[in-house]
Amino acid sequence: MKMRGLYYSGLTILLFSAFLQLTQAQLQLGFYAKSCPNAEKIVKDFVDKHIPNAPSLAAALIRMHFHDCFVRGCDASILLNSTSPNSGEKDAIPNRTLRGFDFIDRIKSLLEAECPGVVSCADVVALATRDSIVVTGGPSWSVPTGRRDGRVSNRTEANNDIPAPTDNFTSLQTHFSNVGLDIIDLVLLSGAHTIGISHCTSFSRRLYNFTGAGDQDPALDSEYAANLKARKCKSLNDTTKVEMDPGSRNTFDLGYYSHVVKRRGLFQSDAALLTNNVTSSYIQQLLQGSENFFTEFAKSMEKMGRINVKTGTDGEIRKNCAVVN
Ligand code: HEM
Ligand SMILES: *[C@@H]1O[C@H](CO)[C@@H](O)[C@H](O)[C@H]1NC(C)=O
Ligand SMILES: *[C@@H]1O[C@H](CO)[C@@H](O)[C@H](O)[C@H]1NC(C)=O
Ligand SMILES: *[C@@H]1O[C@H](CO)[C@@H](O)[C@H](O)[C@H]1NC(C)=O
Ligand SMILES: *[C@@H]1O[C@H](CO)[C@@H](O)[C@H](O)[C@H]1NC(C)=O
Ligand SMILES: *[C@@H]1O[C@H](CO)[C@@H](O)[C@H](O)[C@H]1NC(C)=O
Ligand SMILES: *[C@@H]1O[C@H](CO)[C@@H](O)[C@H](O)[C@H]1NC(C)=O
Ligand SMILES: CC(=O)N[C@H]1CO[C@H](CO)[C@@H](O)[C@@H]1O
After folding, report:
1. Are residues 158 and 173 in the same domain?
2. pLDDT of residue 25
3. Fewest CB within a 10 Å sphere: which of 12, 39, 85, 239?
4. Which of 50, 65, 67, 175 is catalytic?
5. What is the CATH number of the domain that holds 121?
């Protein structure tokens, strides 16, 4: 009997510690409830106070979150400054147009004042993104927390892992599946292009030199192309900013998809969504409302926020988001 008892309690302890390790290794809702009870409120209050005056930052933040998660997981590696001789993600081609770093730094300072060394930069990015999209009238989603910050930021990895605006459907699918996202996530998350801007340089080859013969991309509506050339992107190297969802760049709505189906998406990667039957019919379903954009977008964002997160004792809680401790 005694042996059996010991056996059982041994097994119980074993199972229990395995269970603990499993749960410790995961994000959880309200991770800071005990360690920093006001953390989420501090983020939300800051966002609610400042985003209405600077709504374009919502776009900057969601794009930052995306770029963070696609390279080494959502570990705030995107926030690290390059340290000579290492070139960080910030110096990668797709990051040259990122904004909002000081917005994150300001929130992080408030959190450091409240509970030093507790709240990760990666969680600040995830929370501030969600809260700012809500301010733009977009969907809300759950942001389980407990992400820890990475210690490595590598420019080459960012150039390789972040999809390019010139990507075709196959390349997009590969970039997404590399981080565990499928082609429905691809359609939904591309919907974030309903807010924000692009510089002409991100797509001007489609207007002026698509195949290198001074031609235009036939997949881009020619009337729209003519309009862009006349009024916005006047030459191949013009750096003017263009709204991706003209007329409602600060409102989170279905505008992007309406645009894409009119062949007016700015990037080849936007146009590529029409080249696959599954994704193009999913866009129709979103536009018709048989799939609810907000509900489905929220699910994909939660999924993106979980990509390769560091938890438990992995990584660190950075004190300053731009440098490792
Ligand atoms: C599917 C592959 C994607 C590609 C190739 C892509 C590419 C780009 C490019 C080239 C820009 C313009 C940068 C500039 O010239 O300033 C941009 C802007 C933006 N992207 Fe994407 N993107 C993709 C997916 C996403 C995802 C998944 C999100 C978020 C969930 C996102 C959110 C944004 C936002 C909000 C902007 C506007 C940023 C601003 O206003 O500063 N994109 N994207
Ligand atoms: C990180 O880089 C930014 C931009 O170059 C700079 O303003 C900031 O002071 C740097 N932060 C640290 C901690 O070095
Ligand atoms: C950065 O990543 C690339 C590609 O994975 C790798 O070849 C390179 O060695 C890395 N650089 C550093 C400094 O770790
Ligand atoms: C898509 O792009 C990749 C990489 O540039 C290329 O290897 C592939 O042939 C392209 N696929 C199609 C169907 O055009
Ligand atoms: C168009 O692209 C080709 C091939 O990349 C290049 O040789 C040519 O100089 C480009 N034209 C302009 C106007 O940049
Ligand atoms: C941009 O293009 C125009 C003509 O299209 C040219 O005059 C100008 O020198 C170019 N600027 C740069 C920085 O390449
Ligand atoms: C995709 O749709 C087109 C036109 O509706 C059809 O011809 C083609 O067979 C479809 N392809 C697949 C793989 O279902
Ligand atoms: C925001 C940011 O850090 N941008 C950098 C991106 O890369 C270019 C070129 O390396 C830098 O000049 C920018 O400062």
Report:
1. no
2. 57
3. 85
4. 67
5. 1.10.520.10
SS3 content of the chain, % helix, strand, coil (to 5): 55, 5, 40
Residue 228 is part of which domain span?
169-301
Residues 110 and 186 in one domain: no
pLDDT tens figures, 253-291: 999 999 999 999 999 999 999 999 999 999 999 999 999
Q: From CA 143, how far away is CA 131, in angstroms rounded?
A: 10
232 within a domain of the structure (yes/no):
yes
CA distances (Å), origin 24, targets 14, 16, 38: 15, 12, 21
pLDDT of 15 strictly over 60: no
- Name the domain count of the chain: 2
Residues 121 and 175 in one domain: no
296 and 180 in one domain? yes
pLDDT at 9: 52
Measure Cα distances from 98 to 35, 92, 184, 199 in Å. 31, 10, 25, 11
pTM for the model: 0.91
Query: Going by CA atoms, what residue is nearest to atom 5 of ligand 3?
Result: 157
Q: Which atom of ligand 8 is nearest to the CA of 90?
A: 3
